[in-house]
Amino acid sequence: MSIAKNYIYNVTYQIVILIIPLVTVPYVSRVLGSNGVGINAYTNSIIQYFILFGTIGISLYANRAIAYVRDNKEALSRTFWGIVVLKFITTCLAYVVFLVFLALTGAYHNIFLIQSILIISAALDVSWLYMGLEDFKKTVTRNLIVRLIGVTSIFVFVKSASDLWKYVLILALSELFGQLTLWAYLPKTVNRIRLKWIDVRKHFMPAVYLFVPQIAVQIYVVLNKTMLGSLSNTNEVGFFDNSDKIVKMVLAVATALGVVMLPRVSNTFARGDMDKVKDYLYRSFDFVTFLSVPMAFGLAGIASTLTPWFFGPGFEKTGTLIAVISPIIVLIAWSGVIGQQYLMPIGNTRAYTISVSLGATVNFVLNLLLIRNYQSLGTALATLVAEASVTAVQLGYVAYSVKLKKLFASLWKYFVAGGLMYVIVRYLTSVLSIGLKMTVVEIVVGAFVYFSLLFLLKSEMNKRFFSTGWDLAKKIRNR
After folding, report:
1. Structure confidence at residue 166 (pLDDT)
2. For residue 433, what is the DSSP state?
């Protein structure tokens, strides 16, 4: 399957993952309030630690491992089952530790128990198999149906603040059933093998090597909410969680390419074609910059008028947080390309680990310094600085093997177009009324300004983007 099709499928997949909490946010924010939203975010952040230690870097390793052996079905089958058994063992151990934690904790006992379904779901996740095979269609189509059922269930069953447990249960079951549906394809994808042929130890240490960077990444993804809940209050967690959801959905469009390209680049590197690996890097970096710059500028521009109608009364602070953290869309898009599409596929785990570990350290220290005085705004600032440090370190590592001038050749065009777009969008937000229709107008005008300016600046990526879109439209029309 082509990179373009896989990219489209993975963008859809990433948005589907976010669609339940995001599409329902306006409704849930009004029904559960900032406290209910905060409790869900806080307890979920704790559960993510058990998932992290239960999966010990397996999913990231598995994607790459499958890409290396995908041309040999026997080797593919042995690799798959070895990873599945290893993941089952480690996740079961994590669940036992969770039960001990549950016995010792007093707050939110029932919510934690419901959230623990996510640990079971993580044990059953085999999406890495299809990603390694570059077959993203299966992960999208099956999950989409399950997730849409989940969205419908939220509107049907969650009616008041006392229905928080129902909301959490629907989210958890949607995740679980979404993973179970992927198992239906296994008989046609991998062979059954004898138990004695399953080599768990072979996969343990490589997965552990990738566990360290995943711990670091998880620290500044999840620890933000944990520290906010501990050092501030659940209302502040709710404000930050909603801003995080909006940014993550926009970010999914830019970072989806990294997941698509990792198996492709890994397979190319395994064949020894280093020139092609670097070519993928240059093209991917230019593409994600082309997309992420207008997303960051645009989201910052509409943040203040988006939040009042989208989240409802009481969430005004979320708009400020969105504007503050929107630059991470560009930073994470860059580090996603460098880390997942270059450092990881070529086996330079050390550089990747150092970069994300530094980011985690920066995030943790700044959270300690800023949360007590600035609450969720402090966390937003800490996140921004942490992501900037990750990207800077990764650029430093690749500076000796790739041409940075070539990476950033068109950057000035994107920032000029994005900056002017931001100015115009901010002007529109000051003169237009607040509401869905006006937000759509702001987005459409902003997009028109950005792409028009790139046309005047003779951007090659802009031409390729619309040329590819036009060709795709003709193919669909001619079917």
Report:
1. 94
2. P
Coil, strand or helix at 178? helix
Q: In this predicted structure, what is the pLDDT of residue 107?
A: 82
Q: How many CA atoms lie within 13 A of 115 on its CB side?
A: 22
Beta-carbon neighbour count of residue 173 at 10 Å?
18
Q: Please report the pLDDT score of residue 48 as a whole number.
A: 87
CA nearest to 353, candidates 215, 213, 217, 221: 213
440's CB contacts (< 8 A; 6+ apart) are none
| Residue 193 DSSP SS3 | coil
In 105-189, which ranges are continuous DSSP H helix? 109-115, 117-124, 127-132, 136-157, 164-182, 186-189
Q: Which tokens in the block code for residue 6?
A: 């896989």
| Alpha-helical regions (H) of 190-271 | 201-231, 234-270
8 Å CB contact between 29 and 311: yes
| Token pair listed for 371 | 């949360």
Number of neighbours of residue 455 by Cβ within 10 angstroms: 13
For residue 292, how far is the Cα from the chain centroid?
14
User: What's the rounded Cα separation, in Å, for the pair 343 and 390?
Assistant: 13
The torsion angles phi and psi of 160, rounded to 5 degrees, stand at: -150, 175
Closest CA to 339 of 324, 328, 350: 350
Residues in contact with 253: Cβ distance below 8 Å, sequence separation at least 6, in sequence order:
11, 14, 15, 291, 295
Identify the helix (H) or strand (E) that includes residue 52.
helix 25-55
Q: Which of 382, 379, 391, 281 is nearest to 329 (CA)?
A: 391
**C-alpha separations of 158 from 118, 315, 359 in Å:** 20, 20, 38
What count of other Cβ atoms lies within 10 Å of the Cβ of residue 166?
17
**Ranges of the chain whose pLDDT falls below 50:** none
Structure confidence at residue 346 (pLDDT) = 75
User: How far is it between the farthest Cα atoms of the chain?
Assistant: 70
Three-state SS for 260?
Answer: helix
pLDDT value for 386: 93
H-type alpha helices, 312-459: 316-325, 328-338, 349-374, 376-398, 404-407, 411-431, 436-456
CA distance 50 to 116: 9
What is the spatial distance between Cα 357 and Cα 216, in angstroms, rounded to a whole number?
5
Q: Which two tokens stand for residue 331?
A: 């930073």
Q: What pLDDT sits at residue 382? A: 94
This prediction has a pTM of 0.73
* Interhelix angle 376-398/349-374, nearest 10 degrees: 160
Q: What is the dihedral of CA 282, 284, 285, 289, to 10 degrees?
A: 140
Those residues with Cβ within 8 angstroms of residue 217's Cβ, 6 or more apart along the chain or in another chain:
356, 359, 360
